[in-house]
Each structure stands twice: as C-alpha cells, then as structure tokens.
Design brief:
3 copies of one chain form a homotrimer. Chain A has one domain. The model of chain A has no long low-confidence stretch (mean pLDDT 85). Chain A has 9 helices and no strands. Chain A has 217 residues and is mainly alpha-helical. Chains in contact: A-B, A-C, B-C.
Chain lengths: 217, 217, 217
C-alpha cells in the first residue's frame, strides 16, 4: 500500500492534480464571464472578472501557504486558457441567447467546486496542517473566487444568499479528503472520492432545489 | 523598571495578549453574525461573514508582517470559538427578536476595536516600525475586518459612512500605545491604557451620538 | 549602450522611479477623495478610501513579489503625502463646487494609470518574469487600486463598466514596456515611452468618448 502511494505521488499525482486544476479554473472563469456579461461589462471587464473568479481562491491559498510564485505564474498556460475561454464564450454568448447559460454554467461550476475543495484540502494535509485548517483551506480555495467575483460585480455573493448548499458542499468535499487521509488511503483515491461526493451533492441540490434555512430579514 | 518589563514580557504579556485577542475575535464574529442575519444569509453564509469580520483585520496584519502561519492557524481554538459563537448566536437570535441586537452588539464591538487597535500597534512597535506605520497597523487590524464584513455583505462600510467616530477611535487607541511606548512604559500598561481610552471614547460616541462632518453628496 | 544602461540604473533610475511613484500615488489618492466625498463619507472614511485607491494596486504587487516591507512602509513619506492631499482636497472641495472635480480628476488619473502600469511591468521584467506576467503585473498594479476604491464604496467598478478603455490602456502601456525591453532599450526610455503612449491614449479616449463594446444586460 505504502509503495503504491509513493509511486503514485511520484508519477501520477502531479499530472492528475494539474488536470484537475485546469478544469476547475476554466469552469470558474466561465462563471465569471457569465456574471460579467449580466452586469453589462465591457470585454476587458469581463476578462478581469473571469480572472478573479478563476484565480481568486487559489491565490488566497498560495498567500496562506506563502507559496511563490503564485500557481497562475508558475503555470502561465492557465492564464492563456482563461483568456481563450473569455474570447470563445464572449463570441458564442453574443451570438446565442444569454438565458441559456444559467443552467449549463452550474455543471462545470459544480465540478470546479468539487475539484478545488478536494485539491485545497489535500495540499494543506500534505503540508501538515490540522484537520480544521485543511477543511478551511479546501473551502476558501474553492469558494473565495466565486465570492470575490460577486463582490467585484457589486452583488451580494450568491454563495451566501441563494440558500442552495454551496460552501457546505465544499465543507463536505474537504472533510471527505481529510477523513480518507486519516484512514491512510492514497491521495488520488481520496481526491476522486471527494470530487465524486461533492459534485454529486451539488448537482442533486441544484436539480431538486434543496435549500438551507435563512433568517427573516 | 526595565526588569519589570522583561519579567512581564516573558510571563504575563503572551497570556494577556492571547486573552485580548480571543475577546476581540469573538466580539467581531458576533458583529458578523448580526450583519449576515440582517442580509438574510443562510447559516453557512453567516459563519463565513462572521469569519471575515473576526479574522479579516488580523489576517491583513499577518500578511503585512509576512507572519506564517496566520494567527488563526496557530491558535485554531479561535476558529472553534467563532463557530461556537455562530451556533449560539444563531440559536439565541432566531428565538428572540433581531432588533434587540443592534444595541448590545456595539459594546463588544467597541471593546474589540479598542483591543485590536492597541494590539496591532503594539506588535508593529515591537517589530521596530516607525510611529506612523504602528498607528496604521493598529487601525487596519482593528477596522479592516468590519469593513470587509460590510463589503462582502454588499453594503457601504458603516465605518466610513455612519459618521460616528470608529476608525478615528482606532487612530486614538493606536496613538496612545505609540505615545506610551515612546515614554518607555511597559506594554501591558500601554495596552490597558489604550483599551480604556479608546473603548470609553467609542461608547461615549455611541451614547451621545457624536458625529464627524460629511460632505454633501 | 550597455554602459549607459548600467549608469542610468545605478544613478538616475531609482530617483526617476521614485518620482513616478509619488505622482501616481497622489493622483490615485485624489480619485479616492473624490469618490469618497461623492458617497457622503466622513473625513476619516475619505482618507481610508484615498489610501485604498493610492496603495491598493502597489500592495498587491508587493504581495505578489513577496516584497517586504510594503512600498508605503519603506517610503512612508508617501503616507504623509496622501494625508496632505486628503486634507488639502477636502478643504478646497468643500469650499468650491464638487461638480468641477469630475473633469480634472481624469488627467492626474490618466497619468497615474500610465505611470503605474509602466512601473509594474518594468519591476516584473527586472525580476525575470515572462511577458504575460509582466503585462498582468502592470495591469494589476495600475488598476486594482481604482477597482478596490469602487468596491469599498459599494459601486460597480468604473474600470469595468464605463466602457471607456481603462484597463486596456494599462495593457497597452505594459506591452510597450515589455516590447521595448525585448528590443534591449534602457528602462528609463521604455518607461517614458510607455507613459507617453498610454496617457495619450487615455486622454484621447476621454476627450473623444471612445467606448468598448458591452453586452446587452
């Protein structure tokens, strides 16, 4: 078992983590493009907001871990990918109707949420942080981008206010990673399991319109 | 005198600073709970906003001083305390009326303001920064949490706009710490003096409705 | 040529960069004063917003490069200058009409934009970052202050939404610096050229009301 883990970490894990990261980044960038277009921003503003949504959470994670250069500097193909997504999405969405987007943006966003929360918790565990910190790191790196996207668009963050479990899904995903790490399972396994659990819960929550209790205003 | 200072710093000061910090953190968390509930957020959103209010200013201070791990990572009982405050306050406030809260939140908030501004200035002085930087550090670490709380709730920060002296109180508290440090008084004394001065001014400002001049809009 | 560059960097460049920086900081502070007064903030709130506008972009640049102390700590005359600008502008603007300001704030702001984008890109180039990162650094350090100023004033950032090229001007200025650096021209020359190009474009865009395309909301 231990041998398998070592082999996996040496060869498979970096590639696996990198492909997770690029998918999550693109999903969040797309959510930024849609948010920016809804506010009637110009094309440069849309790219800026897409960048905040895509890189905000991970940049906080890197600040937290005092990791330099930031992940988007080290892997600058991520920046080019986000710019590509902005160009493509702007083109497609200006031709087709914008209403179409609200539904299909939620699937990549759910995948991004699952991916980034699992990855954030995994990195914190590898660095030797305590469970509560690992879970918080998963939560921040997966949700802060979307929260900042809404803050910069002058909106009350949807993650706080639409009452569908979103941050809670990140908590669950991070907790799964932490729990499986305590059991000694290999990182690739726990990342995949957490991704599956959290993305499924999120999609179920969207499909069946689950909601968390709110207070009277 | 010098001997007293040394003894104090070695034994009393860390405990004293830690208990100051936990009280300030809880007071700010409570202000975040109230703010989040007013905006009708779900329970996870309320916890997130409480966390921003409680840890925002101190996290900026740690980023500024390049101190890792952040104070809430090193003392993770602070996180548990904030979660406890959120659970307790949510329970109490959903049973009783929310109007009750506006008045009594201002007392712990005034204490938190006094505590955090004194502590921020003291840490900067110990690190050898110039007076203006020590004062700014006191101001940022005590007010940025509340400002970010309002920004994330999509409100104009109350600290800027309600015209009651708030940031100014932090300036006064930090200046008292800086002034007493120049006079060579021991840190515990200057922390207590600053806390007393700034909290008293803040409470007087609230009680008698003092206000700063604004411009016509 | 190489000798000239060395001599320039040793003697002229630091002074030149410092004077660029102070002008840009004051221009942005002034934009913060105007924004804060429009929102009816009290005088301390106005100073806070002016500080965010003046130091926000550069602080992000310093966090990015992991440079401590922050530039406004090392050069604390910048803080005094911003406080001076706040006091002076508050006095002048409370005597004269506020409408006057919208027009004349745009000239120093255009200069600040040109200066900070050129400087940000130049610093990133000196540190050996790739072209895309140098350009992004120019863009962030020149525009993030203004964006944060609007976010903290609870407004949709003008840089995203007024459809006049603003962030795009920063992209152009940074690209000029990067391009001339590749050609091997001395930094002072490329800084001046970028400043001239970007400030001119910005002023032309304001004068003739150029606008970028937006999407239907």
């Amino acid at each position: 078992m231990n041998l398998i883990t070592v082999v996996e970490q040496a060869t498979f894990l970096p590639t696996f983590q990198a492909s997770i990261e690029i998918m999550a980044v693109l999903a969040f960038a797309l959510s930024g493009v849609v948010a920016g277009m809804r506010k009637g921003l110009d094309i440069v503003g849309v790219c800026f907001v897409a960048g905040i949504a895509a890189f905000g959470g991970g940049t906080f994670r890197d600040l937290f871990l005092d990791r330099r250069p930031f992940f988007w500097v080290e892997q600058d193909y991520l920046i080019w990918s986000v710019l590509g997504v902005c160009a493509l999405a702007s083109f497609v969405l200006s031709v087709r109707h914008a209403e179409l987007t609200e539904k299909w943006i939620q699937i990549p966003d759910a995948v991004g949420l699952g991916l980034f929360s699992a990855l954030g918790a995994q990195i914190a565990i590898e660095q030797g942080y305590s469970p509560i910190i690992a879970i918080l790191m998963g939560v921040f790196s997966s949700t802060l981008g979307g929260v900042l996207r809404d803050v910069f668009c002058n909106e009350l963050p949807k993650a706080f206010s639409d009452h569908r479990p979103y941050i809670l899904v990140a908590v669950i995903g991070s907790t799964v990673v932490q729990f499986l790490a305590v059991l000694g399972l290999p990182p690739t396994f726990s990342l995949l399991a957490a991704l599956l659990v959290s993305t499924t819960i999120r999609i179920m929550a969207i499909s069946w319109d689950w909601s968390l209790p709110a207070w009277r205003q």
